[in-house]
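Hi R.,

Here are the chain sequences for the assembly we discussed:
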Amino acid sequence: MRVPEAALRTQLGRQVSHWTTAAVNLGTLEDLASPGAWAALERQLGVVLRGNLAEALERLRRDALVLRTEWQRARTPEDLARVRRFLVAFRSRYLRTETLLDFYGDAVNTRTSADMCYALASCDRLARHSLAQALEPLGKPTPPVLTYIDKGLGASILKAGLRLWDGTTDSAVAAIKIVRHNLYRPTALIHETGHQFAHIADWNRELALALRARLARRSTESAALWSSWSSEIAADIFAFLHTGYASVAGLHDVLSGGSEFVFRFIPGDPHPISYLRVLLGAAMCRAYFGGGAWDELAEAWQETNPWQEAEPDVQEIVKQSLVLLPEIVEIGIDAPARCFNGEALSRYLPPARVQPETLQELERRIGPALYTSHQWLSVEPVRLLALCGYQASIDPVRAVEILRRQRDWMMRLGTLSQAA
Amino acid sequence: MAVTDTGRSSGQAPESPFPDSRLYSSEAGAEENFLSEAFSLESPFSSVQERESGAGTEFAAFLSELHDEEFDQAVDRLVAEVAGVYQEQFETGSGDLSAAATRALTARFSPIVTQAEAFLDELSGGLDRRNTDAMSEREFEEFVESFEASRVPMDPELEHFLGKLVKKVKGFVKKGVAAVKKGVKAVGKGVAKIAKAALQKVLAKVKKLLKPLLDRVLKFAINKLPEQYRALATTLAEKLGGKKPEADQEPTQEPASDAADDTTQVQQEFDQKLTELMFASNEAEQDAALSQYITEVQTAVPADVLGNLDRARAQLVKELSELEEGQDPAPAFERFIPAILPALKLGLRLIGRPKVVKFLAKLLAKLLSKFVDPKMAPALSQAIVDAGLRLIGLEVTPVDEAEAAGSAVAATVEDTIREVSALPDHVLENEMLLEAFALEAFERAAGANMPPVLSEEAYEQRPDLREAAGTKGAWVSLPFRRPKRYKKFTRVMRAKITPRVAQEIESFCGRPLALYLRDRLGIPHGRTVEANVHLYEAMPGTLPSSICLHEKHVPGLANAARFATSVLHPLTPSAAALLFGEPGLGRRVPARYLDHRSLAAIGQRFYYLEVPGAQPQAVQHEGVFEARQPSEMNLTLDFTGDQLQASMFLSEAEAQSIAMKLRRGHQGQVVSALRASAEQALQHLLARPTAGHIRVVHGTLSPSLSRGAALRLLPQAVLESLISNTLSWLVSVFASQTPRLQREFTQAAESMADGVSLLIGFRNPPGFPLLRRALSGEPMSLYDLVLPGGVPEAEVRVAAGYARA
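And here is the predicted structure of the full complex:
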């Protein structure tokens, strides 16, 4: 039996009212996060993020208006069918926009206390500084960075420039999750900004091609595999060039989760096998700094995690890869790339800047002002992270004291961001 | 143009590409001679050579010493804060809410008064508990410094002001006692032997000054100042030896009009009252001084000059929009012009000449006829839209577009009248000359306020009729739908600023823009910056902070109201040429508008640099975020104590660079860097002395002259000699003291304070007696133009953060 048009219209009308009202009730940005949390964002970041979210909300509300108008104008069964299709699409759009808003609202809302505001503002600044240092010489704009705290083992990033959940809004800020245990030792943050850097510079694709082409001379299987890991290798290289051995030690500590974890291999996973990742980091240190604490780290890593305990296929990958590590380092850091204007990345981020001796010389030259002067905090925050990370890594006895000092300067850096 | 004996032009009437103005000439001829209504004013610039007589000398010296530049800045900040609240909440354009605003804002100020009173009570009580007679001057200073205002939760800006007020009062007490110790007879009458009772009485009187002081600040913020405080000025003149208050004007001042009242009056008046309290012979004199101040502040009828202008401007725009085809706009202009005049420094001269006003109204009506004709007016709106109205970052409605056209006409009238009001009497009294000069003024005003409306051919023949050849823009009065507080150029200019260019462009106080880029934006020296440049113009009522307040959509400007003059820079022709190659968009203004205070001239232009990616540098100081301080030099030429104090503040970036060199033992490089910094600062300070960074303590100078302006009275050769000598003394100190100060300096650099200050005092500097006499009005011989050489005895102190001697 055919349902009367009036009944169809009523049923549709109720749903249209429900969802369009819901879109209106998504409210203001102040409803998403507390005023204090919004106020704790560095101003430019706040302006950009608010603009981005307001744009998504506005777009949803415009769609709601169109839906309501379409329903009001619908006269024929065909019209009603079109409204029904539009309604289904709108529901989906609503839910995706809600996800988008909740994501950023939750992220902003993690600035729950004054200390957390300063700590995360400091991370925002470190992240942005690391990006600007590499992007500005390439003539690329640096996006604002919003860091937020969450549980877990590792950091993650929602890159700026990606299409967001609602399918129409491009993210204007890079949102980086920093995990609690690493809040005051945030070298992983720089790994995540490495992803953003590679995205903006369009490095991943070129690195993948270079790895495939160069390594294929020795093993096509290894070339294909390392090529598939190029995005994570790029991020590891970026972290190394900014924070030196501190990034390698930090990575080591996160990946030290027992043999099963260390040798886990998931085909298609962009992360290299953890065992190889740590050794690649040590190889970077060796290539540019000579011998040092990283040699001990690599030996201990291999001792603790004998590769013979891995699955046979992983053993094969490891065996083939170990000899390739120096070349992979050279391809990533010293090989010219089109995306870097035909130069090597090391031209823009010379590894010597984060060599332990250079970092210690920096401390010696500047003295205690390095940790107290807002001038140095503004100019050298990332190398300060590298220095403290290095010192804490080689001196576990003083590590607590060093990391406390790091916490102190990070809080100071955070206050500078708050004021900006 | 030749002018006959009768003052009439022997040639043709002035020509202009704007509508024919000659028609008016014949009408003007029919008018009766308006010269009979003219009147002349006394020149405000009489001789500034001053008096030299006993108590007056000591009074003036004490007054100069009391002045605290930081207090002026605190007043500026408080005025900016309160003006922001007033403009947002009360100045909505829907009626005069100033009475309600005064009540609300007075209540807001009350914690300052309460806390300052408590501080004075505490200090007074402390005097009871200690034997101050037995204290040395240093011990007494430490005793006074041990008192602080109690910390109660308060708006950070109020707390900042309270801190500076307390500092000022402490300075007053310490200076009073120091003067007694030095044997200043006149002061001795008030606080003989530092008698506790007398000092306590003075402190009790100071308490009574607090409310009126805050009341004055409030009136500044809401533009409700009485026109003049004549009685206060007269009292000061009497104390200084009978000179008229006009003699206190700065020398060689150009006839520019302040856009808003000069807030430094607040401190000048407060200092005057403090000094009178200290110098009073008896309590009756003290009470008289107090009651005069309180009465003036509380009973003076505020003149709502700005409010009247706002209403008249809105009325003009309305009347123009309602004109019928062919209707003469002259009556509307005639009603509008009298409202403009009180806001202009020399506007009074036209108020007394109603026929001149009528003449100008008719001339302007003729010249502007095609812009206000209802058939043609929409074309003006469209031309403004074409000139980029919708690009200024605001949501612009069709109503705003129409309003922008009316405002452009009003602004053209205002600017024309402003220029005409400054014309000399002989021009105002001769209608032919007046017409020619008024036409020129109109063309400049139209070129500035109208979008490009003439043909390209017309502009080729008369390039002076547009400000920018390569940019099609217009100046628009903002904010929309509210009383107008500033103008903005519709186009955001793009600038590529190389390090050399940044070094060449002078910002306020003659500081190179490079210092701003380094110290405020954290951009390292040597980096080329690409910036969006937003252009603004002051009009009656403009405070630099109000530009920030209304430009919320401009990144980095919205929250900078507290330090507006740190983010806005003077747009001079030279700056406009160097930044974006359009010198015509810059404006020259008298030097007094180029120091760092919040005082703008009507018509003065500013620019704001929006540098994508730059992070404004700020530090947290006592719970309040402050903009990082750029390097600066301050000088006190104390002719009563025969000493020169140089306070050299090195910004954090500069201090760290020097500390690093010191740690590496590169003392030669340190001396060289300090010399370069000192030379640059001295060149700007002494070659073109502006208020704020120079204090001259001299027994014969009025407060306004003692803030740098007095040095402009000296021959250029003497100033150059003073620069050269001071620099060589400083270099000598740097060279001899650097090894000794290494430890102190690096420790100061390691502290969390912003920057490091070097406080250098020179005793009996060679040439000072000569300068003292010259400033007293004694003639100088040609042989004295080069000051004598020699290096005076010096004392150096290092302080973490910002400090001034």
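DSSP finds 22 helices and three strands in chain A. The CA atoms of residues 249 and 393 of chain A lie 7 Å apart.

Let me know if anything looks off.

Best,
T.
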